[in-house]
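Q: Hi! First time doing this. I have a protein sequence and I read that you can turn it into a structure. Is that right? Here it is:
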Amino acid sequence: MTPRERFIAALERRPLTGRVPHFELVFYLTMEAFGRVHPLHRNYEQWLQMEPRERELHRRDMADLFITTAERYEHSAIFLHANPASEEELSRLVDLIRERTGDRYFLMAHGDATFAVPNGTEMEAFSVQLVEEPEKLKAQTAGWVRNALAYAARMRRPGGLDGFALCADYCFNTGPFLSPAKFAEFVTPYLAEVTKGYRDLGYYVIKHTDGNIMPILDQLVATKPHALHSLDPQGGVDLAEVKRRHGHEVCLIGNVHCGMLDTGTTEQIEASARHALRSGMPGGGYIFSTSNCVYTGMPLASYETMLNIWRHEGNYP
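A: Yes, that's right. Below is the predicted 3D structure, encoded as structure tokens:
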């Protein structure tokens, strides 16, 4: 089986032999690993000054860097971040990677259409709107869903994207920004609609959110994504408990403790990786990853420690 086929088997909760599939939502440490700037860290102002030949070299370099990362760290899937972020540039990036690798890797892009936790400058205004203009907010989200599904329909073609990662964050470490009742009113119906729409178009859907999702876990699962990511231990999410409650319904992705990867000892990192594998692997439907991403500032050696445990202990009979 190719890495892509193994990734899809896990998303569909089919049994596997051999290594548990692995990927990272983002691998930002490309300077440390390869001496090359990550695509998301490149300057848009420079892009505007490039002539067509320079832009094509830039596209090919980004595609090569995504492939090189997947090859070195044995990722089964690649989350594509086109820069500039446009439909045209994403399509070109997909084509360049397929040209080089065929169907070897599962390719996904961002595709959420729901409200995330607002940033600090918008939080008060958004909270007021929830009370004073609820129908306006709902209409706005409904428009986002329509646009997302129209975009997905335009992107649909043989050899194109395999799926979407829905990356609106809903929770703090202490719990969701919205109460479960408000979440059921303002997020869940639209999350279910966009997820169903993607699935009807033939895409796979991975729902990502950090923080303590436990108060809204049942609602997230009820929207029927293929997988949940990242099952954040820093938010008190126990992968074993989520597996017990919903492992028969949804693939689980995670959840090696990013705090340990950032500042923990080798022993703590190894323990977190083992806990993730032993909690997620039984019965299949599991993909190994960090509890967020491999972000800027994380020691690359810590990620490699995590992968060593995966290579030795993350294997089905």
